[in-house]
Amino acid sequence: MTAVVAAIGRSGARRLSVLGGLARFALGAFRAAGRLTRAGRWVTLRVLINQIRFTALQAAGLVTFLAAILSFLVISQTIRQLGRVGATDLIGTVIVVAVIRELGPLLTALIVVSRSGTAIAAEMATNRVMGEVTALEAMGIDPYIYLVLPRMLGAVVSVAALMILFDAVALTSGYLAAALSGMHFPRYSNIVLTTLGAKDIWLTLAKGLVFGAAVAIFPSYHGLAVKAGPTEIPQAVTRGVVATIVAIFVSSAIFVVIAA
How many domains does the chain have? Predict the structure, then answer.
């Protein structure tokens, strides 16, 4: 019994230590923005543009495709079922609450994690193993400014932009599904606009900020935590991606409580 309690205590202590390290790492990334010099701004801007191109532009096609398919399937099935009880006006609630507010941000964030989160974790771990982080520190260059900050900003901008794209495509695809079921555009738009409120807009933007920051911070932290050698790189990628996914779902649940 004592051994079990001790093992639980050690596990809890390790988890608290990791959470503390993540908190310090995230704080250091945010503080790096205040230490940017003029030369540092140009370097950060160049890395930021590359990050946005990889994270947002190259993922736009996949996000568009999945948003169209998901919205079309959900709305077509919903209209079919609600039509049997004469409650098709409720599709506005389904579109806004289920698709735009919940599924859209989650699916977008998971797409970005699968593409960019893995790449960030692998890149950071490789930089650590190859000694590039140590070389930056020896030259007086803050790794937070050169490595972490531009990727965090790029992920935040990219996730927020992709969420807006997802919502726009979902609304369009939802109309196509509604039109095939006999619903005209004026009625569809009136139902959606009546249900969609300011809270849904700021929730989407807030989720973009939080999910985007998580996509960069968690993989960066676990990537830079590599110590032994190249064999730890896949493990760092796995830890970073899993931690990011958990953080996204936990954050989504917190948003549900806040918006209730």
Answer: 1
